[in-house]
Design a protein that fits this description.
The structure is a single chain. The chain has 4 helices and no strands. It is mostly helical. The chain has a domain of about 55 residues: 434 Repressor (Amino-terminal Domain) (Orthogonal Bundle). The two termini are about 25 Å apart.
């Protein structure tokens, strides 16, 4: 079984049905919020700065989340999930 990030709109790491983290015995990497944000940002075709602005946060804050240095607070996680669920890829294609 390969490690992979489940692609769905439930962006809660380790959370709800079908959401979050998938790990394999071969690889010990756990996927966190940063990995989810990076995956969604690439799917949408946004730069880090563009997604930070779209989410209404400072670039440095967004970068700390994407690099898994910090996690967004609980209330912000909910806002991110709602906003990302409503966004479409910028170039009209899934990356």
């Amino acid at each position: 079984m390969e490690s992979y990030l489940l692609r769905n709109k439930d962006l809660t790491p380790g959370g709800g049905p079908g959401g979050g983290i998938v790990t394999s015995p071969e690889k010990s990497k756990q996927y966190g919020w940063g990995d989810l944000l990076l995956s969604e940002r690439r799917r949408l075709g946004f730069t880090q700065d563009e997604l930070a602005r779209a989410l209404g946060v400072k670039f440095s804050t967004y970068l700390s989340w994407e690099k898994n240095r910090r996690k967004p607070p609980g209330h912000v996680k909910e806002n991110i999930k709602v906003q990302l669920a409503g966004m479409s890829p910028r170039r009209g294609e899934d990356f």
